[in-house]
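User: Sequence recovery, please. Input:
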């Protein structure tokens, strides 16, 4: 595919049109990977409007917030899309026995590798031709995110239909369509990951949507986008 040409076209298109193209192009070989942040919610809504039955995958690390588990159930019912919860090979207890308690405090990269990167790799690679992410350029470190690219990491096409949307645009969309969202967003958490004191905190004033993730460390990504769009 001519990525430059496609990106130039998609920069002028709305996310729903991009999703429509992806569904037509990849059919059942297209997967949505979401952690039910606002972009994921808008993606699911647009897919239901397109009447597209695309597999929805989410990484259930086993240590998500109760509010996130609740939203998963709610979203499954609301959108009528079955959600596949991808779980790591090791339970939290097995991980603690093998690597020690609270690995996320000592080596969050290893923890994310075990609980997110490897499980997603197993499910995506070789099974799909394209995946849809919720990456946006207004998020820290993601300023160069293309809407579409070849993803060497998973050997497939990677789509970020909302790359040029802002957080504000998403919230207008979500409220306008009365869509469900994570209750933690109203408690100061714009970005929500695992429920540990180091992995997810409320965002600091003026420091960006993902400033509460992996606090007091240089880590800014869990690893599933590591070969990707550094801003
Ligand atoms: S976000 Fe934290 S707890 Fe979750 S997998 Fe990564 S390091 Fe582990």
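Assistant: Recovered sequence (231 residues):
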């Amino acid at each position: 595919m001519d990525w430059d040409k496609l990106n130039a076209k998609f920069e002028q298109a709305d996310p729903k049109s991009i999703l429509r193209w992806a569904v037509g192009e990849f059919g059942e070989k297209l997967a949505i990977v979401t952690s039910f942040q606002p972009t994921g919610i808008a993606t699911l809504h647009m897919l239901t409007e397109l009447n597209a039955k695309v597999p929805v995958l989410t990484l259930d690390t086993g240590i998500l917030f109760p509010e996130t588990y609740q939203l998963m159930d709610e979203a499954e019912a609301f959108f009528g899309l079955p959600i596949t919860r991808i779980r790591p090979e090791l339970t939290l207890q097995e991980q603690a026995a093998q690597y020690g308690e609270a690995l996320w405090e000592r080596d969050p990269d290893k923890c994310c590798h075990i609980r997110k990167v490897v499980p997603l790799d197993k499910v995506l690679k070789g099974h799909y031709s394209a995946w849809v992410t919720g990456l946006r350029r207004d998020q820290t470190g993601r300023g160069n995110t293309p809407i579409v690219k070849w993803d060497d990491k998973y050997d497939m096409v990677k789509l970020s239909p909302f790359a040029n949307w802002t957080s504000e645009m998403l919230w207008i969309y979500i409220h306008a369509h009365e869509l469900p969202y994570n209750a933690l967003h109203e408690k100061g958490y714009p970005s929500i990951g695992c429920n540990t004191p180091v992995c997810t905190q409320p965002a600091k004033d003026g420091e960006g949507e993902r400033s509460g993730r992996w606090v007091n460390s240089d880590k800014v990504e869990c690893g599933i986008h590591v070969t990707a769009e550094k801003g």
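The helical segments are 3-11, 15-26, 38-49, 66-79, 92-99, 103-106, 108-124, 167-176.
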